[in-house]
Amino acid sequence: MRIVCVGGGPAGLYFSISAKLRDAGHEIIVIERDPPEATYGWGVVYWNDLLDILHRNDPESARAVSAGSVLWQDQEIRLHGSRHDGTAYFGGYGYSMGRAALLDVLTRRARALGVDVRHGQNLTDPADLPEADLVVAADGAGSRIRQSRADHFGTRIETGRNPYIWLGTDRQFASFVFDFEETPAGWIWFHAYPSIRGISTCIVECSPHTWQGLGLDTLEPDDALPLLEKIFHRALDGHSLISSARGEPAKWQRFQHISNKTWYDDADGNLVLAGDAAHTTHFTLGSGTRLAMIDAIVLAHSLARYPDAQVALREYDRHRRAELHPVQAGARSSMAWFEQLDDYLDRDPVSFAYAMSVRQGRQHPWRYQVHLATQIAAVRRARRAYDTGRRWYRDRRRGEAALPLLGRTLPGRQ
């Protein structure tokens, strides 16, 4: 089969690898508009289950991904405001990797298997695609291929309310950190995790009211960095934020939640969506890379299992859309929770952390390395200890009623 894959991100590259492993006779071309080593964003985050899946599918590239991954341990929720000031902890661990390093690993593996990876080819018109038996549109959330047939795919785009900006920092975090800071204009926060040696990913988010009140809506992104560094000076410990990636400054944006009624074109049977072109999930879940690579595996498996391409694409569409429905529901819940953050910021750090840990309700479809039930149990035990301390102080009229948890490990931390 002659296959053209548009987009050289995790979905496109890993599909080409997975398809070649199942049938070396496939002629596969990957078209990527960016030059080599140029990529949006800083790092990607994932858990053990993804590494297990990759090792089962292709041990060769999985070993390279594992070797290039950074291990982070624990999750910290820091709350700094006028009413409460402290930190809550969850145990566990996860992995992260620089996005450019990940794409380099996948590109080298794809080429070693005989995939023709072409960088620097900007496809402005889908009609210019090379002739192929199958076109895989893995060209991201702004997919030109999907947009050219949006009516067929039934594309739905919901734009989030909160502005956010994807930055780096030269502070090397050892944990996955959520830091919430109160300013005169309102609350602003980031979540950060290590990406490569000496660099961490740092995604800053706030409400539109805070964004405008701080003047971030009028400042150029580079000019906003000193202000953000001042706001987050405690969390950054004097380190700098980094805006420029790919030689361009990061830009404020609003998340686009993308879903489609179908992921393949059954009219002529030669077009299918994968990765962010098919679906997006809010960045607070840290699941985009994982889901894109699983798309790639399932699509390659379907093509190998069903000789009829129409049947293969239909089965891929049925299977993956069913799996993604609860994931995307959980992502919408997570996005909405952060958009309504003011409802929770009057709570002490432990109560706030508990609310954040259960923000997806029963929608969460997979297990993180730290199981949600373990997190909830730990926070509940801490809540009981906190309440006991409050009563002890109140009964003896010693100091304030609240028992601060600054720097303490929550019971049940792993």
Keywords:
six-stranded mixed sheet, disordered C terminus
Protein model, in words:
The chain has 414 residues and is α/β, with parallel strands linked by helices. The protein contains 13 helices and 15 strands. It has helices spanning 10-22, 48-57, 59-68, 99-112, 144-148, 150-153, 208-213, 221-231, 233-236, 288-305, 309-339, 349-357, 372-396, and strands spanning 2-6, 27-32, 43-46, 70-80, 85-98, 116-119, 134-137, 156-169, 176-183, 186-196, 199-206, 241-242, 253-259, 264-265, 271-273. Strands 3, 4, 5, 8, 9, 10, 11, 12 and 13 form a 9-stranded mixed sheet that branches. A hairpin with a 2-residue loop joins strand 10 (186-196) and strand 11. The longest helix is centred in the C-terminal third of the chain and has 31 residues, at 309-339. 44% of the residues are buried.
- Give the biggest sheet: 9 strands, mixed
Oligomer: single chain
Structural class: alpha/beta
> Taking Cα atoms only, what radius of gyration do you get, to the nearest Å?
23 Å
Mean pLDDT: 86
Strand residues, percent = 15-25%
Beta strand count: 15
Uncertain segments = 362-381, 396-414
Q: Distance between the terminal alpha carbons, to the nearest Å? A: 49 Å
Range of helix content: 25-40%
How many individual helices?
13
Order of helices and strands: EHEEHHEEHEEHHEEEEHHHEEEEHHHH
Give the overall shape: globular
